[in-house]
Amino acid sequence: xxxxxxxxxxxxxxxxxxxxxxxxxxxxxxxxxxxxxxxxxxxxxxxxxxxxxxxxxxxxxx
Length: 62
Prior knowledge:
The chain is an all-alpha fold. The chain has helices spanning 3-14, 18-34, 45-61. The protein is globular, with a radius of gyration of 12 Å.
């Protein structure tokens, strides 16, 4: 997996966007429950949620 590309895509989707602002409270809450210190995690909680929302939108719009 190309983590640099993933980081760039998620930054463009989540930083200073309506989607990012919409998902920020949920991402903060779930990050506290899930924890953020695991070494093996590739996606942050915000990225995980954001990709899930985008996938849901894509399936509903197709």
